[in-house]
UniProtKB/TrEMBL annotation:
Family matches, as Pfam families: FliMN_C (PF01052)
Localization (cell): Cell membrane
Protein name according to UniProt: Flagellar motor switch protein FliN
Superkingdom to which the source organism belongs: Bacteria
Spans through the membrane: none
Keyword Zinc-finger found: no
InterPro entries: FliN-like_C, FliN/MopA/SpaO, FliN_T3SS_HrcQb, SpoA-like_sf
């Protein structure tokens, strides 16, 4: 099993997305708010190496953010 210890997997959790011109992004300062295409009730997308693997939701417990997986995505191959 030690072979599996050396495999790197990038996990990304996407809260939402938006498109904006670069010049708008460059003018933003600290504390700026970016409006996303999702609400707080929409599921999160969870990716492993840029492949969608699950949907989830954010949970806060004792001041820590957690991501809870609510649905696994199975690829047909």
């Amino acid at each position: 099993m030690s072979t599996l210890d050396n495999i790197e997997v990038d996990i990304t959790v996407e809260l939402g997305a938006t498109t904006m011109p670069v010049h708008h992004l460059l003018r933003m300062g600290r504390g700026a708010v970016i409006e996303l295409d999702a609400t707080e009730n929409d599921p999160l997308n969870i990716y492993a190496n840029s492949t969608l693997i699950a949907h989830g939701e954010v949970s806060v417990e004792d001041g820590h953010l957690r991501v809870l997986i609510s649905e696994k995505i199975f690829r047909r191959g």
